Structure formats: structure tokens, C-alpha cells
TrEMBL record:
Domain of life: Bacteria
InterPro entries (alphabetical): Peripla_BP_I
Protein name: Leucine-binding protein domain-containing protein
SUPFAM superfamilies in alphabetical order: Periplasmic binding protein-like I (SSF53822)
Lineage: Bacteria, Bacillati, Actinomycetota, Actinomycetes, Kitasatosporales
Amino acid sequence: MNVRKGWRQRRSPLISALDQAAYGDLVAAAPAPHTGAELAALTALLARSRKQIGAVAVGRSRDAPSRAAAEAFTAAWEARGGTVLAVVDWPESAASWLRPAVRLTERAPDAWVVAAAPLGFAQLARRLRHSTDWDPARTYAFAALGDPRLPDLAGDGTLHGLRGATADGGTWEVRHDEVAVLPPATGPR
């Protein structure tokens, strides 16, 4: 391990105030309320996964739209016969993100579902990658996290594989440092 790589592994995964300032409107963004098409597309993404997903952990910001989206997903997932192992919330700013990161991963779910504002999730994702066995490729999110600037805010490779639904029922996926968006499917799924 070289000195620079060792320093990166030991330093705090918190996003600096300077980096936050560079993403002003993204950092200040509150999620829009979820849509029915978004919820349907998100549950369909999990149902179509190559790996059978039964048990999930749901993470959410503490704002009203994220809380409502998490509650709607939980009800929809349980109605399909799925299990929600935990619902974990977090503030938009915290001195440490370790507690919610551990709570979100400790029961080893098949997948994670996230309804959150971008800054809080970027902070949490950095802690998840730094301190747990969380895999963004097993994580599904609502539309607020499909912003093309989020991978850069979260940091190099932190969100690679994260996918989610758009408000109109399309989907998106983080591929390295870019967000690829697909329009809603037409016809039967």
C-alpha cells in the first residue's frame, strides 16, 4: 500500500464543506414526493433482479417526502410477500454516519432500498463503503438519487451499480461516475 492510498483509507469519509459548497443546489435539494409510477418501477426493478430478493433493509432521510416514499415502498414490498428487515433513518448532517451505516447492513439483507435527499445519502454511502460490506449494486433508490452529479459528490466509485426509478416510471443506473437513464418501458413487462 502506498502512502497516499493508506491516507485515503484512514481519513474520514465525511464530505468536506468545500465539496458541499461546490454542489450547492444538489446539497440543498429536498426530494420531491414519489409518484405511483416511480414506486411501481422501483418494485419491478427488485422483482426482476437476477438474484432473488426477498428481504430488504430500507434507508431514508428524515424529510417528509423520503419518509412517505419509504413507507409506501415498505407497504408495497410486504404486500408482494417480501420482508423488510429494518427501516433506518438519518439526518442530513451528522458528526458520524457509522451508526446508521451499521444499522442498515447488520441484518445482511438481500438488497437495500433508499429514499433520501442527495447530501445525506452521499455522506452515508461513503461511510457504508468505508466501514461495512454494503454493495451499491444491490441497492435500489427513488428518483431523488438519480441526479447525474451525485456520483461525483459521493466520490470515486462509491455508488457504482446503484440503480433506481425515475418519477415517470423509467429507470437509472450509476455506471462508475455517470448516471445512465432509461425511459419508461412501453408495452407489457
